Amino acid sequence: MVSNPAPTRIVIVGHPKLADSLNEAAAIAKSLAKKGLEAAHGSLYDEKLRKRVHTGEFDLLIAVGGDGTMLRAGHLCAPHHLPILGVNKGRLGFLFQVDTGGWQKMLDLLLAGDYWVENRMMLRAEHLRAGESLGQWQALNDVVAGRGPNMRPIHVSASVDGQYLTKYIADGLIASTATGSTAYALASGGPILPPELRNILLIPIAPHLSVDRAVVLSEGATVRMTILSDNAILSIDGQTPIGLEENDHVEVHAGENTVKFIRFGDPGYFYRNLTAHMNQNTTIGLPR
């Protein structure tokens, strides 16, 4: 492995609602201080820390939390090309390589430059109504047009690069990255894609008498979802849903930003994680 530059300007963030993640962030900062590096640390939602990220003050962000924390960190860091090292304090941890008990060893490897950078594609989604753009977002996992609290399925017409594909009658339609293929898309029966693939995965949620197979598209494709129901919502990486109206459009294509994750050892970590997690969903039986 080619030696990489050791980061010297580090910020460590934790999720304020996840038990002990802020304490763990402080412990990592203390360990770095013993090695002669002063690191900022605090909540992922601390506006002062976020502003310092935006101004380019850091060359590494360490995120302590669960997969949701990593998604939020990706949104924060990707526009600034800031690499992320994740320390798992959550349940599943598909996006992680480092667990709570192993970060000390990984810090040593990191500071020795013994790591590699994994690049993960993001999606850009745009909400259109009567030709007017109502918002644009970047997504690391997925863009979902789904039914709201109303139990009726929604009708969605999908086209790819301006060519009609099909009409779905389903609980929703997911446009996913390879990263998102282990998230909602997997729960909806989709295939698992290696994380560095730059493809768009299109998969319906609980389709009713309509196409029930996933479609894997090239990086350059543009997906256009036309909403044909009055009970649909738009969700970007599981964030607060946005109401959709009949005849609204959601356009999805590869985004201009890339999330950079710090990794150690060989790329087989992904398959080891996958094997460890399959058939043992640790959230079953736990309080939400």
Question: What does this entry look like structurally?
Answer:
By secondary structure, the chain is α+β, with helices and mostly antiparallel strands. 19% of the residues lie in helices and 37% in strands. The protein folds into 2 domains: 10-115 and 264-277, Probable inorganic polyphosphate/atp-NAD kinase, domain 1 (Rossmann fold, 3-Layer(aba) Sandwich), CATH 3.40.50.10330; 123-256, Sandwich (Tumour Suppressor Smad4). The longest helix has 14 residues, at 21-34.
Describe the SSE topology.
Layout: E1 10-14, H1 21-34, E2 40-43, H2 47-54, E3 60-65, H3 67-77, E4 84-88, E5 98-99, H4 103-111, E6 116-129, E7 132-139, E8 142-147, E9 154-160, E10 163-170, E11 172-176, H5 184-187, E12 200-205, E13 215-217, E14 222-227, E15 232-236, E16 242-243, E17 249-263, H6 269-277
Parallel strand pairs: 1-2, 1-3, 3-4, 4-5
Antiparallel strand pairs: 6-7, 6-17, 8-11, 8-15, 9-10, 9-14, 11-12, 12-13, 14-17, 15-16
Write out key terms for the chains shown:
six-stranded antiparallel β-sheet, Rossmann fold, alpha+beta, Tumour Suppressor Smad4, elongated, 288 residues, 6 helices, single chain, 2 domains, 19% helix
Sheet of most strands? 6 strands, antiparallel
Number of helical segments with 4 or more residues = 6
Beta-strand portion reads 35-45%
Contiguous low-pLDDT stretches (5 residues minimum) are: none
Q: What is the CATH first-level class name of the largest domain?
A: Mainly Beta
Mean pLDDT across every amino acid position: 92
Q: Given the helix and strand composition, which structural class is it?
A: alpha+beta
Tally the beta strands: 17
Structurally, how many domains make up the residues?
Answer: 2
User: Could you estimate the helical fraction of the residues in percent?
Assistant: 10-25%
CATH architecture of the largest domain: Sandwich
| Strand order, largest beta sheet | 7-6-17-14-9-10
CATH topology name of the largest domain, in short, is: Tumour Suppressor Smad4
CATH superfamily of the largest domain: Probable inorganic polyphosphate/atp-NAD kinase, domain 2
Rounded to an integer, what's the Rg over CA atoms?
20 Å
